[in-house]
Please model this.
Amino acid sequence: MRRTPCPGIVLLLSIALLSAGGKTTQAQQKPAPIKASAIQILKAESTEVKLPPDFQMALYEDLIREVVKTGKFQHVYRDGETAAAKAPDLVLLRLTLLGFKEGSARARQVTTVAGATSIKVHAQFVTRSGQTLLERDIEGKVRFFGENLRATYNLSKAVAKVVRENF
Amino acid sequence: MQKYWLTCAAFTFRLRALLAISLGDRPMAQPLRRTGLVSILILAGLAALAGRALGQEPAPTSGVVHVLGLPDIKRNAHGKLSVGAGTLEFVAGTAKAAVPIAAIQDVFTGEDSKRMVGGAAGTISMFAPYGGGRFLSLFRKKVDVLTVEYRDPAGGLHGVIFSLPPGQAVLVKKQLVAKGAHASIPVEEEVEQRKADKKKKGEKKQ
Model:
């Protein structure tokens, strides 16, 4: 007499196989990390969308801080730093402002749902020759807690996450 | 003791004699001498004012918060900001940072507001029952924002943001510009622009 396999075991095995297969495909899809020993962070360009100077500088300084924290680069150069010219495999991080909405901290704290501040940028990681290595649209928001400038911190954290995943 | 009284008496006599001469006992000379005395006093006052303006540095601005940017100072550190001879200095307790005025590329002023009850207490108050935290959030104070862009000796761009008591950012910017800092937008233009923006916001609300 032949024994039929338990349907529960079959189901579990198929789920395990499927998930393993999914993992392998994910691993195959994930691109190889970009190799670079140095990065130069440029000041965000805001030609069409105007970003107040304090937000612009806060974004720039937060970005440098967060990229340094990732530990992916031996050198993190500032905009205009002359030593960057000597770095062999330098990557430039260029941010172009796509949108900015200055909310109200008072409205946010009183209503919870209104008064959000958001900054949206197009981040480009390019080589010295201008070849684009990676580009993403990234957004930073303050919804509940914190003052308006916190949006720049949240945006920098999001950029740092992209750096961690791709370098 | 006797010697002391004698000295006092002599001093009083001399003072009386001096006043009698300067104010004039004779009726004809009185108005002329008074005018002379007044003009001397005015000249002395003007000289003192000029000496203060030329010789002394402006008083440091207190109640300043370092929002971000200075490498050796912690974020949100409270201290004093002063425009010295060739440097913009911020002192917070024992920590001190200076930015050379010649290296400043741009200075901007702005306005913002912050919670009266801030920091950890402010965050905890958000969870207060019956909307107590929200009620506290209604109370905000106005602050000025001063943004300074400068380059270090290696050419790297830096940005520093300070939060100052209302009306102080414009004064600091004026002092910096007077000492040679570069500013793309003149102080007056910036103030007018802000007024226009406020007017626009008011019209939108209506």
Summary: DSSP finds four helices and five strands in chain A.
